Amino acid sequence: MGNKTEQWSTKLGFILSSAGAAIGLGAIWKFPYMTGMNGGGAFFLVFIAFTIIIGLPILIAEFIIGRGAQKEAVTAYQTLAPKSRWSFIGKWGVVGAFLLLSFYSVVGGWVLLYSLLSIPGMIIKENADYAALFASINGSPAFTILGLALFLLINVVVISFGIKDGIEKTSKILMPLLFIFFIILVIRAVTFEGALEGIRFFLQPDFSKLNPSNILYALGQSFFSLAVGISVMVTYSSYLKKDVSLPMASGSVTIMNIFVSLLAGLAIFPVVFAFGLEPSEGPGLLFIVLPEAFSQMPFGEVFLSLFLLLFLFAVLTSSFSMLEIITSAFTEKKQRSRKKVAAIAGILVFIAGIPAALSSSNLSEFKIFGLTVFDATDFLVSNIMLPGGCLFIAIFVGFKMDKTLARNEFLSGSSLPSGGYQLWFQLIRWLVPLTIVVVVLHSFGIL
């Protein structure tokens, strides 16, 4: 289809970079509080089921589209289905990435501010009220907008110079370090008195807590945490060599994602119950629980600082991929200046993110369908844009894309039997779209 001059240098580099794009706020920040607000263990089980049965086939599909076309998101669909309107899926992805990045960067700003405050030891203090600390940062218009601006500035600078060399190399070092720190945190969390209740809440399913609404949230969370539905992975896989097995790479990213979600839950909920906090605390849960846990460790401030910096890296690798899809959509065909497009995109995302940044302060009373701007944007992206994008991708691959190309890309670099392709194809053609439609319609009371 056309050749890319840039390519990932190794399979591991691609897998870890894709995992970095997927493992960010979705697995580490959003998953624990969504689980806490939606009943614990039953939500986790449904999330795993959706991730494997629906999210994994979609991830493979996005990889197939990207490597098959060897183009960024919008152009990929134009290449694979010329003289048709299917390129709207890529445009849908660009809009979704823009909206997602607008509120994602607000949380990225919180992580950045916490990281900066932790270095001189300004977070962990004796008898500190960590909920009040988070409220003071989150409720300050100056702090939240400063955090938003600084976070987006880092994104613009990195994307301006291209992300491949920096991200691939650093992902190989920092992603494993993030896993190691999480395991240390889990070991400490589960040894607190009263931690068992938190483990039981997280791992013991209570299906009476499930309802159509939180089943939709579990579906949206599985898409959010795998970064599928907005064609980010289409852009990433367009740089991939043919000797890499797409099913194996997708499986690796999915397993790492579920494992990080498991670690996040085991790090958070034992501490929540040990210290009498509320599991349904919401978006601030991580920023209240982490300092509480680290404050109980020797050299807690040092560990907290290192963990926050690694967490910041995980958040940045995800946001880079979102800004990359927006930037590449406007640079590839018309040969515009990458730096200029990245800067303009960053400014526009910053402007769009201001209302979300002010959702806990000046705009706390302003509601859209009963939700703050932050929560409304999150709901729109996670429960409408991402499932919608996944539905369109499934229909495109299942009914429009050239079957021989899809089959060749699925089997290229793989020792999987052709029966594996048939299973995946039937899932993407029938089960995936049907499940998405049923869950979304049911959650809105239409079915």
Number of domains: 1
Helix content: over 70%
Task: Indicate the overall shape.
Answer: globular
- Category by helix and strand content: mainly alpha
First-residue to last-residue Cα separation: 42 Å
The number of helices is 18
Going by CATH, the architecture would be Orthogonal Bundle
CATH topology: Hydantoin permease
Spatial extent as radius of gyration: 21 Å
Low-confidence stretches: none
Give helix and strand order, one letter per element, not per position.
HHHHHHHHHHHHHHHHHH
Counting DSSP E segments of at least 2 residues, the number of strands comes to: 0
Instruction: Let me know the average pLDDT.
Output: 90
Report the sheet-strand fraction.
under 5%
For the largest beta-sheet, the strand count, sense and barrel status come to: none
Q: Give the oligomeric state of the chains in this entry, treating copies of one chain as homo and distinct chains as hetero.
A: single chain
Describe the fold and architecture:
It is a multi-pass membrane protein. Its main location: membrane. This is Transporter. Pfam families: SNF (PF00209). With 447 residues, the chain is an all-alpha fold. The chain has one domain: Hydantoin permease. It has 18 helices and no strands. Helix 3 packs across helix 17 and helix 5 crosses helix 15.
